[in-house]
Every structure is written in C-alpha cells, then in structure tokens.
Amino acid sequence: MANRTDPDASTIHGTNPQYLIEKIIRAKIQDSRYWKEHCFGLSAEGIVERAMELDHIGGLFGGNQQPTPFLCLLLKMLQIQPEKDIVVEFIKNSEYKYVRALGALYFRMVAPGAGDSFF
User: Fold this and answer.
1) Nearest to 25 by CA among 77, 72, 78
2) In what helix (H) or strand (E) does residue 101 lie, and over which residues does it extend?
3) Coil, strand or helix: which one is 61?
4) Whole-angstrom Cα distance, residue 106 to residue 86?
C-alpha cells in the first residue's frame, strides 16, 4: 500500500487525492529514499511523529530534484486522508511551525469550495 491511496479514502475534487500532486513529482517522491525508509506503512499517528521532526519546508532540491520530507509527508497525508480532528490539531499546533504549515497546506488542498463545509 506504499504507493496506493487508502481504499477507504474519498475522492477530492472528483479525483484520486494523490493526483493533486503532479505525476512527475509523485514519481520522484515515491522513488526517494525518505519515502521508502520513513513513509512506508505510515499511519496518521506516525505522520504526526514524522512531522515534528521537520526542520524546513520545500519542494524539490538538488541537481537531480529530490523531494523534501515535507513534500513526502504531504503525499502520504493525501494517501491516507487523516481524520479532520488530526488535521485541525496540526493547524492549531503552535509549538512546531512546520507541523502547522503541513496541516494548513493539506487543508488548503482538500478543502471543498466556498459553498461546501469541511467541518
């Protein structure tokens, strides 16, 4: 299940949640060392622990465009779709600014339009 969306996950904006990240970037994330070592079999609780270890925000870096751990965790969140309570706690977290940023970006990507309610 490392590279597949959770079967219980719902579609977001009418599509598979993983497709919110471009195919090439998704492939680079899934081929990265961080993804294979730290994100394989990760649950919602594990994402919280990994997010607290973040020390920067970023996309791709380096000559061969490696994904940052932040981007890997974002894709994992899109795969497993943590409960809304967990996402809200990410956003309310004032102690770890990168956890808060991860929660806010995830919320921004999956939140419905202005006419719908996320909560």
Assistant:
1) 72
2) helix 97-110
3) strand
4) 11
Question: What is the predicted pLDDT for the residue at 115?
Answer: 47
Buried (b) or exposed (e) across 66-105, using 16+ Cβ within 10 A?
Answer: bbbbbbbbbbbbbbbbbeeebbeebbebeeeebbbbbbeb
Contact call for residues 71 and 31 (beta carbons, < 8 A): no
pLDDT digits (tens, 9 = 90+) for 32-64: 999 999 998 888 889 999 999 999 998 888 888
CB atoms within 10 A of CB 40: 11
60-61 and 66-67 beta bridge pairing: antiparallel
Q: What is the pTM of this model?
A: 0.87
What would the two tokens of residue 78 be? Answer: 């899109």
